[in-house]
Specification:
Elements: E1 3-4, E2 10-15, E3 18-23, H1 33-48, E4 54-59, H2 82-91, E5 96-100, E6 103-105, H3 107-114, E7 117-120, E8 125-127, H4 141-149, H5 151-160, E9 164-165, H6 166-172, E10 177-178, H7 184-198, H8 219-228, H9 230-233, H10 238-251, H11 254-270, H12 272-286, E11 305-308, H13 312-323, E12 328-331, H14 335-354, H15 360-368, E13 370-373, E14 384-387, H16 393-406, E15 412-415, H17 422-426, E16 435-440, E17 449-454, H18 460-473, E18 476-481, H19 488-502, H20 509-519, H21 525-532, H22 534-537, H23 546-552, E19 565-567, E20 573-575, H24 577-590, H25 600-620, H26 627-638, H27 647-654, H28 656-665, H29 672-680
Parallel strand pairs: 3-4, 4-5, 5-7, 6-8, 7-10, 11-12, 11-14, 12-13, 14-15, 15-16, 17-18
Antiparallel strand pairs: 1-2, 2-3, 8-9, 16-17, 19-20
Helix pairs in contact: 1-2, 4-5, 4-10, 5-10, 10-11, 12-26, 13-14, 19-25, 20-25, 25-28
The structure holds nicotinamide-adenine-dinucleotide.
């Protein structure tokens, strides 16, 4: 006979002396208030029932407890709180077996750690991914996990946040037994009987000392770990707190370790980084919501892809589809260009194979999906064609005119243009409703952003299919309307412009780059310019520019004679006296007065407030659907540091009134949206 648990969130029954608590709170059994109440109810019943000798905790639906209920974060937790439930499970005198399927992550796995044994099906995954939200496992995870997997493994697991598949988890000690797929309940019952037969008192993870004791007082272990991961952790607070918490697991008695964990958790929870990362977590899941598309809009099947142009972008774009197992017809203008492009793709795959990321057979399988072609005629069967030829309107229009003549009716015709008007490209075809922009970021096989640009005439099915490509090729799609540069390029241009101006006023390229690096960018604008090549980004226009002056001296960047920096044979940068002179001369030509150095905080404001302002315009004009899409575009397209939440969330953290005042002091008129929100005391990113 099974009985309903509190709130109807599951059932309790006794099977041959084993109490089975089955929680069922769709969709993912998140540990919200009603789940906690049902758990408390179940464990109270099991404890009070003399017929029950051991307990199996199992979940209905598609997964074990997938984690805390993150919508409760930052709010007071309703009783029973998670800690109370965990104490109840762990302290019980009857052994509790966690029976895991799906994903036991975060609070879900922390709960499993308070059970006395853990059994999982092979397809299950366990882990503590809190770091990805700028947090640490705050319900004992940092104290219990090291006690079963050891300090060094725990450091890896909790700072990376990676989920671990059941077989590996068994090897590491994260679970104690594997069940047969599809037979979890029966196997868990059998395992419970086995545990009873062993006749031991319930084993509590908290009581184990063997794995942590040898590390007591060994500060060098943590220092070495931080040093080895300095690059990955740079700017992030959570990994540092995680390391401190794990150190506490070795250095302190369990209860004191828990207290330390709590303090370190609260510090993160109250900080701006976790707020930003939680915002980003939701922002990423929002981008595919397009309010003006009918809910039931059909997406078009994509079975065969064409890519026009096998240069820097075309090759990378093609790889995305090859990786997804789709055949790609790759069109170039000459055999030589075709061979070169395909050669680059092959070398990329072979490099991955060398690093053990794919097998030699997989390389060949992907290469075999490419059909090289020298004529657009080869694209007649493609469902989706992406053009990645030179960034010139006349060239693109010519390609689209010819493509229009050969593509099958209803095929999606896309351009990877960075700046050009999609409507003007669509306008040369007889089917502008099937044309859109699919804007990838370089390297196109790596960067996670895909800007989907809807033209005036693009039909809903084509927009929906463009947005759906994100899932197919593993990218985050952000929808944009047509404007110069769309979202990410348009707003980030303001940063380079500001840098070009500021460097004339006193701060050196290295001071400006250092300020942005310390803010969290991988590199500053001048390092970036030198890397890309001054001749490449400086092209176009007859006006005298700073970059043009450097190019005139044949200073092209890292590839030739240095650029804003000088480089040694190992490409190590040093400040360049030649560049300094070029900058001073150009400042004199422009009549800009040198006002001397600036503090880093002001450099950041000078470069990034204008970006924030442009972001506000992009939202105000309806180019982006919502502020969080703009933040996602900057984070995923330009590596804007995720722990700031992107430009708009960051502006909210700084305070909009301060941003507005800063812009005005620079002589820049604040966007209406920004000024309005600042005046009303509202947030841009809300
Ligand atoms: P690229 O010069 O490396 O490659 C362009 C390729 O197109 C060349 O191989 C060329 O032979 C080929 N091509 C030219 N005309 C053609 C035609 N009629 N038919 C077939 N092939 C033709 O340029 P890229 O950097 O790959 O840029 C391509 C497009 O992608 C441009 O619109 C650019 O703005 C855009 N884009 C570039 C980047 C970037 O970082 N490089 C990023 C995003 C978007």
């Amino acid at each position: 006979m099974s009985e309903q648990l509190a709130g109807g969130v599951g059932r309790f029954e006794v099977v041959d002396g084993i109490g089975v608590i089955e929680i069922d709170n769709p969709p993912v059994n998140a540990l919200g208030a009603n789940t906690r109440a049902a758990l408390a109810d179940g464990f109270t019943r099991a404890a009070g029932d003399a017929a029950v000798r051991a307990i199996v905790l199992i979940c209905g639906g598609r997964t074990f407890f997938a984690g805390a209920d993150i919508t409760e974060f930052g709010k007071p937790m309703q009783e029973p709180n998670l800690q109370q439930v965990l104490d109840m499970i762990e302290a019980g005198t009857k052994p509790v077996i966690a029976a895991i399927h799906g994903t036991a992550l975060g609070g879900g796995y922390e709960l499993a750690l308070t059970c006395h044994r853990r059994i999982a099906v092979p397809s299950a995954k366990v882990g503590l991914p809190e770091v990805k939200l700028g947090l640490l496992p705050g319900a004992g995870g940092t104290q219990r996990l090291p006690r079963i997997v050891g300090i060094e493994r725990a450091l890896e697991l909790i700072t990376s946040g990676k989920p671990v598949a059941a077989a590996k988890a068994l090897e590491a000690g994260m679970i104690d037994a594997l069940a047969t797929e599809g037979n979890l309940r029966a196997d868990a019952l059998a395992y419970a009987r086995q545990v009873l037969a062993e006749g031991k008192v319930p084993q509590r993870v908290r009581d184990r000392q063997d794995k942590v004791e040898p590390y007591r007082g060994k500060t060098e272990v943590y220092e070495a770990f931080l040093k080895a991961n300095a690059k990955a952790f740079r700017g992030f607070q959570a990994p540092l707190n995680i390391v401190k918490a794990i150190q506490a697991a070795a250095d302190l008695p369990f209860e004191e370790g828990l207290k330390r964990e709590r303090e370190l958790f609260m510090e993160l929870m109250m900080g701006s980084q976790s707020a930003a990362q939680r915002y980003v977590f939701f922002a990423e899941r929002q981008t595919t919501r397009v309010p003006d598309l009918p809910a039931d809009v059909a997406t078009l099947p994509i079975k065969a892809v064409g890519v026009i142009g096998a240069g820097t972008m075309g090759g990378g774009i093609a790889m995305n589809f090859l990786n997804a197992g789709l055949p790609v017809t790759l069109v170039e203008t000459s055999q030589e260009a075709l061979d070169r492009g395909i050669g680059v793709i092959r070398r990329n795959y072979e490099a991955s194979a060398k690093r053990g990321r794919m097998t030699a057979e997989a390389v060949e399988a992907r290469m075999a999906l490419i059909s090289p072609a020298l004529s657009l005629d080869a694209l007649g069967a493609a469902d989706l064609v992406i053009e990645a030829v030179f960034e010139e309107m006349a060239v693109k229009q010519d390609v689209f005119r010819r493509l229009d003549a050969v593509a099958r009716p209803g095929a999606i015709l896309a351009s990877n243009t960075s700046y050009l008007d999609i409507d003007a490209i669509a306008g040369v075809t007889s089917r502008p409703q099937d044309v859109l922009g699919l804007h990838f970021f370089s390297p196109a096989n790596v960067m996670p952003l895909l800007e989907v640009v809807r033209g005036k005439a693009t039909r809903p099915e084509v927009i929906a299919t463009g947005m759906g490509l994100g899932k197919l090729i593993g990218k985050v799609p952000v929808l944009s309307r047509v404007c110069h540069g769309f979202i990410a390029n348009r707003v980030m241009t303001l940063r380079s412009q500001a840098a070009q101006q500021l460097v004339l006023e006193g701060p050196s390229p290295q001071e400006i780059d250092a300020a942005l690096y310390d803010y969290g960018f991988a590199m500053g604008p001048f390092q970036m310019a030198d890397l890309v090549g001054l001749d490449v980004i400086g092209r176009g226009g007859n006006e005298r520019t700073l970059r043009g002056d450097l190019v005139a001296l044949d200073r092209l960047g890292q590839k030739k004679n240095g650029g804003f920096y000088d480089y040694d044979e190992n490409r190590r940068a040093t400040p360049s006296p030649v560049a300094a002179k070029v900058i001073a001369d150009f400042a004199a030509y422009k009549g800009v007065v040198n006002k001397g150095p600036l503090p880093a905080e002001e450099i950041v404001a000078r470069l990034l407030y204008p970006v924030v302002n442009e972001c506000a315009k992009v939202v105000e004009e309806g180019v982006a659907i919502r502020a969080s899409d703009v933040d996602m575009a900057c984070i995923l397209g330009y590596n804007w540091p995720v722990f700031t939440g992107g430009p708009m969330f960051w502006a909210d953290t700084v305070g909009l009134a301060k941003v507005v005042a800063g812009l005005e002091a620079m002589g820049i008129a604040p966007a209406k949206l920004l000024a309005d929100k600042a005046a009303k005391g509202e947030r841009l990113s809300a």
